[in-house]
Design goal:
Layout lengths: L8 H11 L7 H18 L13 H14 L11 E4 L7 H7 L5 E4 L3 H13 L5 E4 L6 H4 L4 E4 L9 H5 L4 E8 L11 E10 L5 E9 L1
Parallel strand pairs: 1-2, 1-4, 2-3, 4-5
Antiparallel strand pairs: 5-7, 6-7
């Protein structure tokens, strides 16, 4: 596979290095990442997967996913609690995290039917057997009933609102993706377990933080 639309593995590796993220794109990982972007570009031509600007820069999607993966501890972590990507939309960061760590359980929570159809199609095409797609709006009693998970979302609500929305009783940890606005963590009973700083494609600093309960 030559690469994602308009992008090569060498360019993806350079973007990760420039961001300060130590993620190895071996043949298997890059094959999944490139195929994901190809599928998304094809679907986006006829379906509203996200706003056009949100799909314009592949680097931002890969960097955010790599930062989430690093904040979760890196590696495969097949026995870890599932990662719940809330408002999965076009699959970033959730499906890209699965491309990097395919044995980690992943729940994609998305209320729109066409976007869920894309997520299911992509997960099947990429042979990501640990991915489950839920056509639900968070918070969801159906997802709550499944047990502990780690919650992440890139843009479903503001940075100030996300901790309050994310911290359901069954959520054992919350991941934040933050740019310039970095409000103080508002909830008692959580501690900062990991912080990953990286450089966005526009040169600004971003940070991924994982807050664990207890």
């Amino acid at each position: 596979m030559s690469g994602a639309p308009g992008w090569t593995r060498e360019e993806a590796r350079a973007a990760l290095a420039a961001a300060g993220l130590a993620v190895e794109l071996d043949d298997e990982r890059w094959g999944r990442v490139a195929r994901f972007f190809e599928l998304r570009a094809r679907w986006a031509g006829t379906h509203n997967l996200s706003g056009p600007q949100a799909l314009a820069d592949l680097r931002a999607d890969l960097l955010d996913a790599a930062a989430v993966w690093a904040a979760l501890g890196g590696g495969e972590a097949g026995d870890a609690p599932p990662l719940a990507d809330v408002g999965s939309g076009s699959g970033a960061p959730g499906l890209l995290v699965a491309c990097l760590a395919p044995t980690r359980p992943l729940w994609l929570v998305e209320p729109l039917a066409k976007r869920c159809a894309f997520l299911r199609t992509a997960a099947h095409a990429l042979e990501l057997t640990e991915v489950r797609v839920f056509r639900e709006r968070w918070p969801s009693a159906r997802v709550d009933a499944l047990g502990p998970c780690v919650a992440v979302s890139r843009a479903v609500v503001s940075p100030e609102e996300w901790p309050h929305l994310a911290a359901r009783p069954q959520v054992s940890a919350v991941v934040q993706l933050l740019a310039q606005r970095r409000p103080a963590w508002p909830l008692a009973g959580f501690s900062l377990a990991a912080e990953v700083r990286y450089v966005a494609p526009d040169g600004g600093e971003r940070v991924a933080r994982r807050w664990t309960r207890g």
